[in-house]
Fold these 2 entries.
Entry 1:
Amino acid sequence: MTTTKTADVEGTLSQIYALAGAGADIVRCTCNEQAAAEGLAQIVPRSPVPIVADIHFHVEMALAALEAGVHGLRLNPGNLRKPEEIKLVASEAKDRGVPIRIGVNAGSLHPDIYERFGGATPEALVESARLELAYFQEVGFEDVKISVKASSVATMIGAYRLASETFDYPLHLGVTEAGPLPGGLLKCTAGIATLLAEGIGDTLRYSLTADPVEEAKAGRQLLEVLGLRERTGLDLISCPSCGRAEVDVITVANEAQKALSALDIPIQVAVMGCVVNGPGEARHADLGIAAGKHRGHLFIRGQIIRVVPEDEMVEALVEEAQKIAKEGIEARLAARDESAEAAAAADRAELLDVKGADANNATQVIERIRRRSE
Ligand code: SF4
């Protein structure tokens, strides 16, 4: 959702473009006053993605937004309460073929429903959506999407589970007022990912107190990590580091993330702290580097292709990622340095010699445990 004044056409469009570039497929703008509706009339034809007008309190703003040509409306049943007005908007939207989201929010639940259910419970949120839906159905309007957001992750999950059993309409997921980073990200992810993993949800929004581009990025990334969207950029995996690490994994991983993100290549890259376990544990990665003996073992799908000095690890990753993007994985495997595997094996053997294959001395510990029980 944009954070600019919608009347500021150029500012809002600039944010819409930034959001679309970060992965947003739909953008919502507030339509809270006449100037906002007039702004929408200029924004909609120039927007790269469909625009939804967010409507609270003012039915006339919903009608004005429809006149402005928006692709969708979001109505809050908690503050648009007159049945005749709701039906008027639904009829007008039906005539124009514009969908409406019934956007229930725990924080602005209709007071009667709040009282009847003893609070903003999952049942209360779903009841609010059901009542609004009944008005829509009275005028034969079916082009509906429903959301039942709450700032409590547990309430939100319960409400969406109930909504998915109650309605046969698409659901828009969100944890509302989730807060700033990083806690907000965690709350949104906990709620949205849980539901998506259960097969619930059709669209989503991260509601963060942050630049909305962060919301779009997070949403896109969540869909990618759940395998619901094809990866468009970098997926950097890195080990958590441990006593075996031969390098400062945090620094190298952060530097690699920064350098590789800028390339905009859909690739999975691994940064691993040691050559003993790294290449094997990250053998599924397209490309990776593991540290050992002041050198980096560069590998593709687990096969060592080059050994580079430690201070050139990030540079080597960037260079190889670019070559993979241009030539493909197989060609880069074929072009590997034939002596790399032997050099890497020598490093691994030396490290195992120093630290031992059993870094935790488990064999001796087990012996001691057995002796105790004899
Ligand atoms: S890859 Fe090596 S350094 Fe990283 S966690 Fe695994 S054993 Fe530890």
Entry 2:
Amino acid sequence: MESIPEDWQRGLVIVAHPDDIEYGAAAAVARWTDQGKDIRYVLVTSGEAGIEGLHPRHCGPLRETEERRSAAAVGVTKVEFLGYPDGRIEHGPDLRRDLARVIRLHRPEMIVTMNHRETWGPGFLNSADHRAVGLAVLDAVADAANEWIFAELTEPPWTGVRWVAVNVLLGLTHAVDVTATVERAVESLCEHSAYLEALSDEPVLDQAARQIEMSTGPRPGFDAERAVGFELYVFGG
Ligand SMILES: [Zn+2]
């Protein structure tokens, strides 16, 4: 198992929902911001359908606030929400165009996104939003680089994406040593306190610590006490 390349400066994390980054990938983000890298977050929805009993009108703003706090806990200050409907994101030209636009705006060398496959492992369905966003992010790298596919975009094409790291549990090809940053990943997930309190009666800190423990275990063939795994896609750059 190889390390994720770290010879880059600008990274963009694109996911469907507030909390998607915090269930593991944030430990890698903390390591990278400690190295002085510029990391920004783009959330396709505001997660407004995520809390039972709380109307989306109130839930969306609450979850945006929690996401901004989570980001700050790992050194990320730029967080953007695209306003797609939570639970009903569709893969297609509209989503690809909007993601191509944000890639052109932020000009990342490294993009991090969520698992786009149908399952997390045998018998564990991945959500429709995660499938749509992950695949559209991969597609949007080429869209951002091409001046003609979405000719209506006014931002100049960006051809500098070198990698997309897809956060997966199975089928990983690369990993990041997060031994030094797991505690900050726990703090980052704890910022989703309203969400976690609605999920379970277990104290927020206990839930967060348990989740991060599960998502940052040692990886076979990778020399680190704690690691986050990715499937790495390589682009021209
Ligand atoms: Zn999600």
